[in-house]
Amino acid sequence: MAEANGKADHLIGVDLGGTKILAGVFTTSLKCVGRSKMSTKADRGSEAVVERIARCVQDAVDECDLSLKQIRGIGIGSPGAVDSDSGKVLFAGNLGWKDVSLKKELEKELDLPVFLHNDCNVCTLGVHEVELEGKPKNMIGVFLGTGIGGGLIIDGKLYSGFNRTAGEVGHMVLEANGPKCTCGGRGCWEAFSSRTALFRQIQDAVHDGQKTVLTEMLGEDLKDLRSGDLRKAIKQGDKFVEHIVEEAAKYSGIAIANLINIINPEVIVIGGGLMDALESEMLSVVVKTAREHAFPGTDKGIKIVASQLGDDAGITGGAVLARRETK
User: Is the whole model's pTM more than 0.90, yes or no?
Assistant: First the structure.
């Protein structure tokens, strides 16, 4: 347990998701000393969610026998389009938010400095600083989960672009007339390789009479389908699920080849819940496809690896953000 003293020598990282809020307390050397988790309950509206974030932070601080006076700052990753300068969430579909002043509201609740960025940018910061020890000058973080997001480290700094929205790699169009994406466009990488896309493809096929062990495991409606169930089905020899996952991995490889051609980073790190659950089924296919599609010679020496931070990438990156901003 941390010693109770009056010094503000701890940081908080918050990962705000559509379904859950995760808060972690870190030392200034980025060691996690306590955490708390809470459901988001986005349907209750933004004010209620801000209160829940504040409560989750308070719980994490209590867990470590610390007080808020010992916290130097809070870094938070939010889904959607985020203006980090104004601290506003401009749009987050899975929270049902538009123009929410998250920084201001949370600072009012907790009386601490709050710093806000897009969740995948924050995860990229965490991976770069803690997993890769800040070494690569140029790196791309890619996160395959409910959707697909990314973050760009260029010349050692997080690159956010002209409108502060750079890194939306999931909406790179891979097929002009492809399946409809949640963003309203068609044929985005997210529409092929996100967990949402995979589950939709499986459910549609089952509806059309496709046989799969998933229905034996979960029933015909596949209501409680999880990423881990896909791995179990493949282990049981389900060729249909194996094919669906392999296709998603191939599309991810093509997207990553595009990123290699455009950015030419030293490292591409792939994280997110889908990759955590299916690394052994997906990663080798992603790497092979990316190398086949990259412009000849451009991928030489570039590492394409899976992140080992898992669910902690968001809170770790939040702590990195808070540490940078309060130095």
Answer: yes
